[in-house]
Amino acid sequence: TDELADSIRKVIAHNNRQQIYNIRRLSWAFGQFIRYGSWNPDIVARLYPTSLTTYNDNLVHESVIIPKGIKTITLNGRLLHYTYKNMAEHLQKSVKYAEMWAEQRALRGEKSSISKAVLKSIGRFFRDYLLKRGFLDGLAGFMIVVVTMQGTFNRYAMLHYKSKEKKQ
Are the CB atoms for 67 and 52 separated by under 8 Å? Predict the structure, then answer.
C-alpha cells in the first residue's frame, strides 16, 4: 500500500542498523481480503540487518529469529499478500507443507496418531472459525478453515505413518 511504501522510505532514510521492522500483511484468498481467522493479524519481520538475525530450522514457514534486546517496530500500512491463484493451488501447497512438516517432526522423533489428527483438526476449526471469528469473512473464511482443518489432519496423520515406517 502507499502507506507502507512511505513507512519503508522513512526506514531507509533513517538507516538504523540495530532495528528490526515488522510488516502487517493483508492476505487475499477466494476473491477477497481476509480480515479474520488465523490469517489476520499476520505480522512478519521483513526489514532487518542480516548480521543480527538468523532463521529457524522450519521447513515450512521459516521465520527470522530475533535476538533478545533488539527492538522491533511494526510499520504503518499493509503488504497486500496474494496467496493462492485458485483452490487447486491452495490444496496442493497444503499437502506439500503437511509432508514437509511431518518429515521434520519425524526426524525429531515426534509421534502422532489418527485420533490426534482428528482432534487437532477439530480444534483448528474452533480456534480459527469461532474464536478468531473466521466466519466474519463469509464463504472465504469457511473455505480457509476447511482447507486448514484438512492440512492439520494431513500433518498429524502423515506423522503417524512416518513414525510407524521408522519402526519397520
Answer: yes
Tell me which of 62, 82, 102 is where a domain ends.
Answer: 82
pLDDT, one tens digit for every residue, the chain (168 residues): 999 999 999 988 987 778 899 999 999 999 999 999 999 999 999 888 888 888 888 888 888 888 888 889 999 999 999 998 888 999 999 999 999 999 999 999 999 999 999 999 999 999 999 999 999 999 999 999 999 999 999 999 999 999 888 766
Count helices and strands (H / E) in the chain: 4, 6
Residues 43 and 102 grouped into a single domain:
no
125 and 71 belong to one structural domain: no
Q: Which domain holds residue 44?
A: 2-82
Return the number of other C-beta atoms located less than 10 Å from residue 129's C-beta. Answer: 23
Question: 82, 117, 152: which is the final residue of a domain?
Answer: 82
Give the pTM. 0.85
| Distance in angstroms (rounded) separating the CA atoms of residues 9 and 164 | 53
Closest CA to 73 of 23, 126, 15, 140: 23
